[in-house]
Amino acid sequence: MTLYEVMNVSRSASQQDIERAYQIAQLSYSKDSLAHYTLINEEQREKMLQEIKEAYRVLIDPEKRKEYDLRISKQKSEVYHNSYFRNSTEKLFIEDGDKGITKVIRNIKGTFSSSRPKKSDP
Amino acid sequence: MNPKQTRSNPVVSERQNRTRTIWAVGGGKGGTGKSFVTANLALCLSKKNKEVTLIDADLGGANLHTFLGMKKSDLDIGDFLTKKVPSLKDVAVPTRYNKLRLVKGSDHLLFTANLNYFKKLKLLRHIKTFDSDVVIIDIGTGSTYNSIDFFLLSNPGILVINPEPTSIENAYYFLKSCIIRLLKLYIDHYQIQDLIKKVTEQINDNSRSVYSFLSEIISQDKYYADLLFRALKKFKPGLIINKARHEKDFMLGESISNVVQKILVINLDYMGAIPFNEIVHESVKNLTPVMDKYPDSDVGKAILSIASRLTEK
Questions:
Q1: Residue B213 covered by a domain
Q2: Of A59, A80, B31, B102, which residue is 20 to 30 A from B203 by alpha carbon distance?
Q3: What is the pLDDT of residue B288?
Q4: Is residue A71 included in any domain, yes or no?
């Protein structure tokens, strides 16, 4: 995940956009915010706040941002997905006891065990 | 046949030839004000000279008619679903408001609470035949296949939540269910069960994240990983906060949108907040929508603003 993705801003975001995104992110991941309720645990919340602070520190500084932009533009485009998916938030989805994706996987496995293909709708 | 080249998008294929705007209002938890918002958004649009049809698809808890000051009539959506009438238009009745029609909900629970996929598609086909600028479907509570499918097939699906933990928890459960349903539709449509089987065998049971699921697919097949990722990105529901009392309630929508984009991958478009006001309670008791009796109230203005944002979306 790029620092821009961490901050939820586009690559062309202005300083003002970054400031605003930082305020929203801080508010979103504050301890008493309802926005992350059931989606992440306390440890993950703190980690995300740290990542946001680090992203802000780089992107708000024109020199550091320029260096960072140069660095990521050199990376191969195919790295994009790997960097996006294999990031620190990788395991955040459905880790609150909701076995949603496991259920899908089980359904899919169930489809394989069937001798006849199932309809797309259960 | 190379499925990578020949198969169309499974959700988009259902949306092809759409000539009408279809919104579906849902959100998981009961009592958040979905029907109130639906009725008032519809009235707001009809006052702006739009032809609007409301469909009460809250199959099992229908009362949209009450929000518009109407009583149950002989015909409702159940009569169409049970083939008593050939067309959905046959059960669309005029309301007391110009340019606003309503398909009333049904209490034929046995026939309507669990629609099969083909009945849902038939219903959708008929919905598309309405000569309306906007069709708004109230999909009711819960995360049933009915509500999820209507939500996925509309453009956009609109979540109505309250600034309360229980409401947010249910909304997130609903969104996760939509994401899972969407992935399953794509997997079935593109017949990539073999790939998914291979991937799922390699995923640790403790690793239940969609990110880990997708990243494992990347290692096997970048094309399909990209396809599933894009499918999630195309799913762009809207969000309305209802019964906002405090300043932080009005700011919550933007925070939720921010968190959802990062954690659930999808883009949740915040449409606005409707303030808590006793006039809502009064208007429901008096069987008169707020947009009829109090259009200039803070609630009325908020609904007008949301309607404008939605029509621009």
A1: no
A2: A80
A3: 95
A4: yes
